[in-house]
Design goal:
Blueprint: E1 5-6, E2 14-15, E3 20-21, H1 47-57, H2 61-64, H3 66-74, H4 78-102, H5 109-116, H6 119-148, H7 156-170, H8 175-206, H9 230-235, H10 238-245, H11 250-253, H12 261-270, H13 272-290, H14 302-310, H15 313-347, E4 358-359, H16 365-375, H17 377-384, H18 389-420, H19 436-452, H20 459-482, H21 484-490
Antiparallel strand pairs: 1-4, 2-3
C-alpha cells in the first residue's frame, strides 16, 4: 500500500467534436479493444472479474435484508414487483451498454451526461453518484454490523468501524486485488443462492425438514392471495425493490480498467435477465413456497429466517455469513467507485485538482481516502441510532442511485438520435426497442419516485434531494465562474 501520488493535468485539450479529453480520460474512439492504459488507470480487470462484478452487483443487501420488509408489506406479490422492476433494470443496462460500446471510460454515465446533455448534467451526475456510493457504503456497513450480531453481541458501531477501515486498506493496494476480492465475494453469493434454491426444492419435493409438512407452492396464494395487502401494498414496496438493484450499473465504472471492454462488458450485460430470474425471482418463489410470507418480519433476512423455519440452524449461520459477504462486497464496490468518480470530476475541471492524482499503483488514492472518511458517518449513525440506521439511509441511497439511471436513459436517447443522424459513430451494442423502451423505463422510475412520497420513511429522501440539487447548482455556477475556459471546452 502506498500513498505516493502523481499529478495529472485535469484539463488538456479535448478530442475534436466530442468535448472530451483524450490524454487525461483515455477516450477510445478508434477501438474499444485498446488494451493500453485508460485515463492513467491500469487495465487490470479481466473478463471473469467483470462477469462476477456484474453478477455481484445484482445480489446485495437490498435482496438479503431489505426483502424481509418487502415481503411483510406485499406478501407473495413481491415476486411480481421484482419481475417488473427487473425488466426495467435490463433496459437500463442495455442503454448503458450502448453508450459503453460507443466510448468505454471510467467516468461512465457522468461522462455521457457531460458530453451528450451538457456540462451541468455531468457535474450533477458525477457528484450525485459519488454521494450515492458514500451513502450506500454507510448502508452496507450498517447491514454488515446487523449480521455480525447473529453470532456476537457487538456494538454495531464497532463492527462498522472495523469493516470500513479494512475495505479502505484493500482498495489502496491494486485494482487487481479489488477485482479478485469481488470475484470471490460474488462466487460465495452465487453458490449460496443456488444452494438455497436446491435445498428449498428438496423440501418441497421430498418433504424433509421441520417445514416439510407445511411447505407447498400453495403458500404463494393461500394466505390472503397473491396480493394480501392489495395492489397498493405492492406498489409501496417498489422503492425497496429498486434499491435491491442499485449497483448493477457499476460495471460501467469498470470500463476504464477492463482488459477487454469490447467483449467483457456486453457479455456481462447480456447476463442480466438470467441473473434476475435466478437470484431474485427463483429464490423468492422457493423461499415463499417453503415458508409462508406471514412468518417474515421487517429487519430480518428472509433467507436466514427460512433456514430457521426449516430447522437447519447451521444453514442459517451459513446464510448469515453469505449475506455478510454481500454487504461487504457492496461496500467494497463503493470504495472502488467513489475515488474514480471524484477523479473523473477533477479531470474535467468540475472537482478539486488534487483528486486527479494517482498512486504509483494507478489508484485514485486521495479520492478513495476522502470518500472512506465520509463513510465513517455510518459509524456515527450506528452509534446514535443502531435500530434505525438502515431505514434512515436506504431511501436516500435509492433516490440518488436512480438519478444515475435517469441520466443513463436520457443520455442514450440523445446519443441514439445523434448516431442516427450520423453526428456520432453508431454503437455495435444497441438498445432494443429504442427510443420507446427508454421512455417506458423513465416513466417507471418517475412512478417509483412519486410513490416514495407516500411512504413516511422514504419521504425524507424527497426532502433532502432538492436541497442537494440546490447545493450542486450553486456549486456548478461558482466553479463555472472561476474556470469558464473549462466549461467552454466541454460544450
Amino acid at each position: 500500500m502506498t500513498s505516493e501520488v502523481e499529478d495529472h493535468d485535469p484539463v488538456p485539450d479535448p478530442v475534436p467534436g466530442t468535448g472530451v479529453d483524450s490524454s487525461a480520460t483515455g477516450v477510445l474512439l478508434d477501438a474499444v479493444e485498446d488494451s493500453g492504459s485508460s485515463e492513467g488507470y491500469q487495465r487490470g480487470l479481466g473478463g471473469r472479474q467483470i462477469q462476477m462484478i456484474a453478477i455481484g452487483g445484482a445480489i446485495g443487501t437490498g435482496l438479503f435484508l431489505g426483502a424481509g420488509k418487502s415481503i411483510h408489506k406485499a406478501g407473495p406479490s413481491i415476486i411480481l414487483a421484482y419481475l417488473v422492476a427487473g425488466a426495467v433494470i435490463y433496459l437500463i443496462m442495455r442503454a448503458l451498454g450502448e453508450l459503453l460500446m460507443y466510448r468505454p471510460v471510467s467516468g461512465s454515465f457522468s461522462e455521457y451526461a457531460r458530453e451528450l446533455l451538457g456540462p451541468y448534467w455531468g457535474f450533477v451526475t458525477g457528484w450525485t453518484y459519488w454521494l450515492f456510493w458514500v451513502v450506500t457504503g454507510i448502508t452496507e456497513v450498517t447491514a454488515a454490523a446487523t449480521y455480525v450480531n447473529y453470532w456476537w453481541n457487538v456494538a454495531p458501531w464497532i463492527s462498522a468501524l472495523v469493516f470500513t477501515i479494512a475495505l479502505y486498506g484493500i482498495n489502496l493496494v491494486s485494482v487487481k486485488l479489488f477485482g479478485e476480492l469481488e470475484f470471490w465475494f460474488s462466487m460465495v453469493k452465487v453458490t449460496a443462492i443456488v444452494g438455497m434454491i436446491l435445498i428449498g426444492i428438496g423440501v418441497l419435493t421430498l418433504g424433509f425438514s421441520q417445514a416439510g409438512d407445511t411447505a407447498s407452492v400453495g403458500n404463494l396464494y393461500q394466505h390472503g392471495g397473491i396480493f394480501p395487502k392489495g395492489i397498493g401494498g405492492t406498489l409501496m414496496t417498489l422503492q425497496i425493490v429498486m434499491f435491491s438493484f442499485l449497483a448493477v450499473e457499476l460495471v460501467g465504472v469498470t470500463a476504464g480498467e477492463a482488459a477487454n471492454p469490447a467483449k467483457a462488458l456486453p457479455r456481462a450485460i447480456k447476463t442480466v435477465p438470467w441473473r434476475i430470474a435466478l437470484f431474485y425471482i427463483g429464490s423468492l418463489i422457493v423461499i415463499l413456497s417453503v415458508v409462508s410470507w406471514t412468518a417474515f418480519e421487517p429487519g430480518t433476512s428472509p433467507f436466514v429466517e427460512a433456514f430457521r423455519k426449516i430447522g437447519l440452524p447451521a444453514g442459517a449461520g451459513i446464510v448469515n455469513f453469505v449475506v455478510l459477504t454481500a454487504a461487504l462486497s457492496s461496500c467494497n464496490s463503493g470504495m472502488y467507485s467513489t475515488g474514480r468518480m471524484l477523479r473523473d470530476l477533477a479531470l474535467n475541471g468540475q472537482g478539486p485538482r488534487l483528486f486527479t492524482r494517482l498512486s504509483k499503483a494507478g489508484l485514485p488514492f486521495l479520492g478513495t481516502t476522502v470518500s472512506a472518511a465520509l463513510m465513517m458517518v455510518g459509524v456515527w449513525i450506528n452509534y446514535e441510532w443502531p435500530s434505525k440506521a438502515f431505514d434512515y439511509v436506504v431511501s436516500f441511497a435509492t433516490i440518488s442511485g436512480m438519478w444515475a439511471w435517469i441520466m443513463i436513459l436520457f443520455s442514450q436517447l440523445r446519443y441514439r438520435a445523434k448516431a442516427d443522424r450520423g453526428e456520432l459513430p453508431r454503437s455495435e451494442f444497441r438498445m432494443p426497442g429504442a427510443p420507446w423502451t427508454g421512455i417506458a423505463a423513465l416513466a417507471f422510475i418517475f412512478l417509483v419516485i412519486v410513490l416514495m412520497g407516500f411512504d413516511k420513511d422514504a419521504r425524507v429522501s424527497l426532502y433532502a434531494a432538492p436541497i442537494w440539487a440546490a447545493l450542486l447548482t450553486v456549486a456548478y455556477f461558482v466553479v463555472k465562474a472561476r474556470t469558464p475556459h473549462v466549461f467552454a471546452k466541454q460544450r
